[in-house]
Amino acid sequence: MPDGHKAMMRADQTPRIWVMMGHKVGDNSQVLALAEALGLPFEIKRFVYKPYELVTNLLSGPTLAGTVKSQCSPLEPPWPDLVISAGRRNEPICRWIQKQAKGRRVRLVHLGRSWAKIERFDLVVTTPQYRVPIRPNVLQNKTPLHRVTQERLQREADEWAPRLGELPKPYVAVMIGGSSGPYSFDHKSAARLARQASELAAAKGGSLLITTSARTPAPTIETFAEHVTCPSHLFRWSKDAKENPYFAFLGLAESIVVTGDSMSMLTEACATRKPVHIFDLGEGRHAMRQTPATERDAVAGARPRGKGGKRARFRAFMYRQMMRCGPQRLSRDIRIVHQHLIDSGRAVWLGDGFPPGLPLRSLECLPRAVARVRALFDGWEAEPRVAPKTAEPEVPFKRSA
């Protein structure tokens, strides 16, 4: 290990790390994943945003103008050495912190896609779906970061197993997201998912462990529940829930079904190294699955179907215009991640079988990101100080995309 890495790991010279939490649970999960994997103390900073934050964020540069300061975590010296963030809303905040820390280098690590110029960050950790251009400070991972560890899965599974004892094994976990871009999770999709997941569990003589997410439309949850035909346990996600069986279901399941809209949930499922089945929200010309027919429609964008009304159609229309005319890196193509997971043998489309003898390999995204972050500290010498305690090392896990 280079001397710079050793300096980073010494207890008396530990970098001060701030982890920026936002309004999207999927983003928060990724920044926590990286912070936890570094194996160093970190402090969590939470923020509440003004309704018009987009205007201030795009026009004002480094600023706190888009936040409701009275409801946000304090930002004051001593300033951090490393800030980990994700999402557009936190970018101006991170740059504001860097500007305040005069005479001290604050390294900015951003996950996903940056709205500001890439050169503003020391490191951008992204995935192919965002089509971020290749740069020296960009790490292109195949999948998002994740918080799945065998220890976490086992701990959560042990806690929930007694509550599910009456359900027949093996368990098939079903992780339900919601609509994404031009793809709609409507009543028709919900009924089809329930039927196919039930068939998968029934063929094994088992049952379903089901959890929804923050983006799952409430009416479609009822439709899904009505069409389940095998023993099951359904957890309805709520922001006020005191506990969440998401990791427990991943740990207890023999195989996992995930709706194809959520790259975070797909990655977390594949990180268990169990068989993962991707549910296609669409069918035929509206399908996510890449075929000669859907390749043509992918450019125009599949139209949302069923209940969703004008708002869903308008969002799909705007997304199609972004795909056609906007900067490519400000849109995304989630089919790229689907295809990688399938080509690497980690997942199949629900209804397809797994190729015989194909090993379920571990994901490499998190170790690669950790290595690149540590490389930012080569040759760095910190002022001696006692490492700060990690603020809220475990937060209630409330799953969204």
Main CATH class of the largest domain: Alpha Beta
Unreliable segments of 5+ consecutive residues: 1-12, 292-310, 381-401
- Secondary-structure element order, as H and E? HEHEHEHEEEHEHEHEHEHEHHHEH
Discrete helix count: 13
Global structural class: alpha/beta
Q: Please state the average pLDDT score.
A: 84
Approximately how much helix is present in the residues? Answer: 25-40%
Strand line-up of the largest beta sheet: 2-1-3-4-5-6
What is CATH's topology name of the largest domain?
A: Rossmann fold
Description:
With 401 residues, the protein is of the alpha/beta class. It has two domains: 3-146 and 365-375, Rossmann fold (3-Layer(aba) Sandwich); 150-349, Rossmann fold. The chain contains 13 helices and twelve strands. The chain has helices at residues 3-9, 25-38, 53-59, 91-100, 150-160, 187-204, 218-227, 246-252, 263-271, 292-300, 309-325, 335-343, 365-375; strands at residues 17-21, 43-46, 82-86, 107-111, 123-126, 138-140, 171-175, 207-211, 232-235, 255-259, 276-279, 347-349. The strands form two sheets. Strands 2-1-3-4-5-6 form a six-stranded parallel sheet, sandwiched between helices. A six-stranded parallel sheet has the order 9-8-7-10-11-12, with helices on both faces. Helix 4 (91-100) links the parallel strand 3 (82-86) and strand 4. The chain starts with a helix and ends in a 26-residue tail after the last helix.
